[in-house]
Amino acid sequence: MSVARCCRASTGRRGAIGHAGAGGRGPACGRGRDGGSSVRAGGAGRDRHRRGAGIGRAIAERLLADGHRVALADRDEGAVAEAAGALGEGARAVACDVADSAAVDAAVAAVLADWGRVDVLVNNAGIAGANKPLVEVTDAEWALVVGVNLTGVFNCCRAVAPAMLANDWGRIVTVASIAGKEGNPNLGPYSATKAAVIGLTKSLGKELATTGIRVNCVTPAVIETDILGQLTPQMREYMVSRIPMGRPGRVEEVAALVAWLAGDECSFSTGAVFDISGGRATY
Predict the structure, then answer these.
(1) In this structure, what are the phi and psi dihedrals at residue 49, rounded to the nearest 5 degrees?
(2) How far, in Å, CA of 12 to CA of 4, rounded?
(3) pTM of the entire predicted model
(4) Angstrom distance (rounded) from CA 241 to CA 166
(5) What is the distance between the alpha carbons of residues 255 and 247, in angstroms, rounded to a whole number?
(6) How far apart are CA 181 and CA 201, in angstroms?
(7) Between β-strands 4-8 and 48-51, what pairing exists: parallel, antiparallel or unpaired?
(8) Rounded CA gap, 51 and 223, in Å?
(9) Are strands 272-276 and 48-51 parallel, antiparallel or unpaired?
(10) Which residues are catalytic?
(11) From CA 64, how far away is CA 15, in angstroms rounded?
């Protein structure tokens, strides 16, 4: 599966950086603060970053609707340009592979040069990887999933944190997975990386707790996105069967939760895990 990253930013509005699309890897949205030294909603904005295909696109649409400008990043330059064009005014494209730290740094620098701030990062890029027993997973298959799902989150968080600290405001939201809490059989690399980004969220949230930056993650159960095409019918049936509500989640439902975590109202939650699993989560 291809992964895309997106960036969003704005002047006089909120901006975001994120990952959106399928087939690429990149960072996602942000908002810039305006009026004096800061930009926030209603005379002030935020810069945000986000990642992902399906979920990432829905998050981008939601943040745009909330008044943000959005920068989308994907390793597939043509695909991300098309996605940004479809989103319309307020969206821009950045070619970027989140697994490449130099590419991430360059993408964030480009957004900062154009918009002046990065207030929100949404880490939504991810790949399912090999659907097989762990003993059959190759070194290359393991490294690919770790590179996108874990190293990509690390690269993006490290790249945006200095700009957020300089403004003493920021929101980092990572899209993890219920698999990171419970583990899914035959998806060892995926489950392990999603557990790792939950731990990274908790660690970074504590590091930045006394600043104006909040760091949280969401853990969806199976959501109707292109990533389901990487799963066998048996695996899909297994995953849906574990959801008490009896259906996959919708991308709009995830986007609504992320939008709250990326805003001012999320002020006393950091280093936290927010379930969106149709009742599947048990802790």
Answers:
(1) -125, 145
(2) 26
(3) 0.84
(4) 46
(5) 17
(6) 13
(7) antiparallel
(8) 15
(9) unpaired
(10) 190
(11) 8
pLDDT band (50, 70, 90) for residue 82: very high
Q: 122, 18 in Cβ contact below 8 A?
A: yes
28 φ/ψ sector (left φ>0, alpha ψ -120 to 50, else beta) = beta
Distances (CA, A) of 157 to 164, 174, 225, 253: 10, 10, 24, 24
Q: CB–CB of 97/22 below 8 Å?
A: no
Domains of the chain (ranges; CATH) run 4-275 (3.40.50.720)
pLDDT for residue 163 is more than 60: yes
Tokens of 177: 């997975």
Model pLDDT for residues 213-240, shown as the tens digit of each residue: 999 999 999 898 876 776 788 888 888 9
DSSP notation for 129-146: ---S-GGG--HHHHHHHH
CB 213 within 8 A of CB 206: no
Over 80: is that where the pLDDT of 24 sits? no
**CB distance 218 to 257 below 8 Å:** yes
- Do strands 120-123 and 14-19 pair parallel, antiparallel, or not at all (unpaired)? parallel
The DSSP element (H or E) to which 51 belongs, if any, is strand 48-51
Q: Residue 135, exposed/middle/buried by CB under 10 A (0-12, 13-18, 19+)? A: exposed
Give the distance, in angstroms, between the CA of residue 278 and the centroid of all CA atoms in the same chain.
Answer: 20
Give the relative orientation of helices 139-146 and 188-207 as an angle to the nearest 10 degrees.
30
Pick from 94, 211, 101, 91: which is nearest to 162 by CA?
211
Q: Residue 25 pLDDT > 80, yes or no? A: no
Query: Per residue in 180-191, pLDDT tens?
Result: 999 999 999 999
